[in-house]
Amino acid sequence: MASAMKPVLCVGCTVIDFVTISASFPKEDTDERCLDGNWQRGGNASNVCTVLRLLGLKVDFFGVLSKSDGFRVLLDDLQRRQIGVQHCLMSEKDPPFSSVIIAQDTGSRTIVHCNKNYPYVTWEDFRKIDLNEYGWVHFEARHPKETIKMIETVRQYNTLHDTNIKISLDFETLYEKNLELCLLCDYVVFSKDLASRQGWETACSACSHLVSALTPSSVNIICPWGKEGASCVDSFHNYSDVPAHEPDSVVDTLGAGDSFMAGFIYATYVSQKNLPDAVDFANRVAGHKISDYGYDHIAQIQKDQV
Question: How confident is the model at residue 52 (pLDDT cuts 50, 70, 90)?
């Protein structure tokens, strides 16, 4: 069924993740060996693309790619996974990267980002894309001046062509600057870390504050809260708490939020599930992701569970 759907377009960043797996988080001023390590493609929208492909949905990535030799590993991975990059721009700059330490004893991940003012796609680039190719467009909440124009372009296309391309937003940073983006979206996934920085101590509290901030918008709000599950509120202000799907052991939490996002898009778009059921599947995908390293094992999830 997923193969018959129009692709999803994911707008955002892709980076190189330098991943180090250690027995425990290293102590300051020590010299020790790691258990394992690798380079892999990262970035929120880029990871969402990966998981959507593993779930069987066609997907294109729209962002800025680097011509640097070091970026070749990312381009090869995008091609191997059949993630479309035909709309992407190319830059001479070295790609952004993240240094990631995964502590095996706790499953925690610590990330240090570096992007050196790497360029981001603009509305001028986005408006050249034929939106008729897509059934869903997903955005990261960043560069609001450009992103809001991109979102408005999708909404205008829906009005002019009597279509219903869904719009989702991954909201992780800069609450005040990016809040306006939410008003134009169908679905907003709001991160626990950002909610905690706002002083919101539970997923339900985060949903309540966002409903107040975004009224009278009809946006659907989802707040994942790790092992405590997630809360959501639909466009009619109906609240639901959805329990987590915890694995037997936590191995790798890197990309759990992006896996949740992809699972939610899949369940809502492909399976046409209501909001709580889509969030439940998103929890299932995120829980399965953290049970092993990387993402490829997500393909094992049975589609008939959706």
Answer: very high
Q: How many CA atoms lie within 13 A of 257 on its CB side?
A: 21
pTM of this prediction exceeds 0.85: yes
Q: What is the tens place of the pLDDT at every residue in 172-221?
A: 999 999 999 999 999 999 999 999 999 999 999 999 999 999 987 789 99
Which residues are CB-neighbours of 300 under 8 A, at least 6 positions away? 288
Nearest to 63, CA basis, from 109, 11, 114: 11
Would you call 197 exposed, middle or buried from its count of C-beta atoms within 10 A (0-12, 13-18, 19+)? exposed
Two tokens, residue 108:
């925690």
Parallel, antiparallel, or unpaired for β 97-103 and 15-22?
parallel
- pLDDT, residue 108, reads 78
Q: Range with the lowest mean pLDDT among 23-27, 78-82, 194-198, 273-277?
A: 23-27
Please state, in angstroms and rounded to a whole number, the distance separating the CA atoms of residues 256 and 94: 26
Check: CB of residue 20 under 8 Å from CB of residue 109: no
pLDDT, average across residues 128-140: 97
Is the previous residue joined to 216 through a cis bond, with omega within 30 degrees of 0? Answer: yes
- CA dist 194 and 15 (Å) reads 21
